[in-house]
Design brief:
DNA-binding transcription factor activity; 11 strands; Arc Repressor Mutant, subunit A; D-Maltodextrin-Binding Protein, domain 2; alpha/beta; 302 residues; 43% helix; LysR_subst-bd; 3 domains; 21% strand; DNA-binding
Length: 302
């Protein structure tokens, strides 16, 4: 039987590709530089082909080396999934999970959710990364995250989506704004309004406009913010109106302001909040259990 690469050898090569330096890669793997270098030489010997071009200035992977790195990442990801699957089968919420959450959900759901998880599953470790949807989905595909909590749909391949609940959009206006006095508020009333939105890259912007059947050209956007808290302060100072998700209102995002909120007369002015994970992951059952946990926690808040 022919010799085969070891997981350790593949991990050394992947680390070298990521850091571009033997010393930095060795430190990331918690081994000496000589150990890492020897492991990669052994890998080249096993495969019978050079994977790395070495000189005094920099490290360059050969074309074959780049291919081995990419396939090696898939191998390492599969091994991690096997380990996680066995842990989850032994007892749900008893290991570790890396979750990515978008900024327009994280501050409004996580505080209560984390407290309840600690109370009911003290051995469960949840590692959280807050970032934009684009960055999170890329991290998910690279295996850096296990599951995402975000607004759906989001266009990405090779994943499964698990809707949890609908999060209603409400209109927030400065005190005494003309839109507040309308007895029957419709999305048509927003056309031409000074609508404050998050900057490009935040999916809340697209989902809010889509829910209200609006295009950018339908509204005047005097200011683009990076957070809902900033937008609330702009509304409070009379610069415009905005669309706020109900979960933010439930978390008292308007506390200390005189901003007034109105509900639309139409139905379906919502965004869908859900989970996303890599298709074919063996942890689907565990992620669905997490989804049920989040759904129940939100039901108690509503």
């Amino acid at each position: 039987m022919s010799r085969q690469p070891t997981l350790k050898q593949l991990r050394y090569l992947i680390s070298l590709a990521e850091h571009g330096h033997f010393g930095h890669a060795a430190r990331a793997c918690h081994v000496s530089q000589s150990t890492l270098s020897a492991g990669i030489l052994e890998l080249e010997d096993v495969l019978g082909a050079p994977l790395v071009e070495r000189n005094n200035r920099r490290v360059i992977l050969t074309l074959l080396g780049e291919e081995v790195v990419q396939r090696g990442k898939n191998v390492m990801l599969s091994v991690e999934d096997i380990v996680a699957c066995c842990r989850a089968a032994a007892e749900p919420f008893n290991g570790a999970m890396r979750i990515g959450v978008i900024p327009t959900i994280a501050p409004f759901i996580l505080p209560g959710l984390l407290k309840r998880l600690r109370d009911e599953h003290p051995d469960f470790r949840l590692f959280i990364r807050e970032d934009l949807s684009e960055n999170l989905t890329e991290a998910l595909s690279r295996g850096e995250l296990d599951v995402l909590l975000l607004a759906l749909p989001y266009p990405v391949q090779g994943v499964d989506e698990f809707p949890l609940f609908e999060d209603e959009f409400l209109l927030a206006c400065p005190k005494g704004h003309p839109l507040v006095s309308l007895k029957r508020l419709t999305t048509e009333d927003l056309k031409g309004a000074d609508l404050l939105l998050l900057e490009d890259g935040h999916c809340l912007r697209e989902h809010a406009l889509e829910a209200c059947k609006l295009r950018d050209s339908d509204v005047s956007v005097p200011y683009q913010a990076t957070s809902l808290n900033t937008i609330v302060q702009m509304v409070a100072n009379g610069i415009g109106v905005t669309l706020l998700p109900k979960m933010a209102l439930d978390a008292n995002v308007l506390l200390g302001t005189e901003v007034q909120v109105s509900r639309f007369s139409e139905t379906g002015i919502t965004r869908t909040v859900g989970l996303m994970w890599r298709r074919n992951t063996p942890r689907q059952m565990e992620f669905r259990q997490l989804g049920a946990f989040i759904r129940e926690a939100q039901r108690q808040v509503a």
